[in-house]
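Sample A.
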Amino acid sequence: WPDLNFPLSSHLESFKAAYAGEEPAPSNFQREVSAMLEQDLGWRHIFEYRTAEGISLDLAEPESKRAIEVDGPSHYLKDVSSGGYVVNGPTQFKARLLRCLGW
């Protein structure tokens, strides 16, 4: 997408700086998942990795563009028709964006 011409592209750096300025707040569950993946499965990864585009990833292996997002309850909404849970809009958008970037 860096080669595309977006109407707000002149503001890209300020948008990126504002987004990247947020400090991650990892949960205990996220820390436990990270430790288990490294200790039990030997998956070496970076905890709270930030991509070149400024997107924060919970656990990432940048060389292979593999990542795991440890999504807790705030990433889901209750579907009133089925009674089940669905991924919320911001989480869906982040997943779609990461796929477009090759993750």
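Sample B.
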Amino acid sequence: QKRLAADIKKCGRNRIWLDPNEASEISMANSRFNVRKLIKDGLIIRKAVKMHSRARVRKNLEAKRKGRHTGVGKRRGTREARMPSKILWMRRQRVLRRLLRKYRQQK
């Protein structure tokens, strides 16, 4: 019955609820027609989808923004992979070149 109901309601077997008080009546139903009748009567129900909360993730990200959970033990990549020295160098060069440009303009 559960398999039939799942097929009729287009969901998995885990989402089907069979009324435990009407177990005998449900066990008598041996066709799609009968199962449909039970669904209409409310003895067989398709349960709601379970919630998958992101609250924990949000809390963790908030802490990460404050700089928590970023110690040596939490790091997977090498220092170079996390922040390449090339990029740091490029930033430094650009800053210096901007300064030079500004100073030349002032002359």
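B remarks: The chain has a mean pLDDT of 94. DSSP finds six helices and two strands in the chain.
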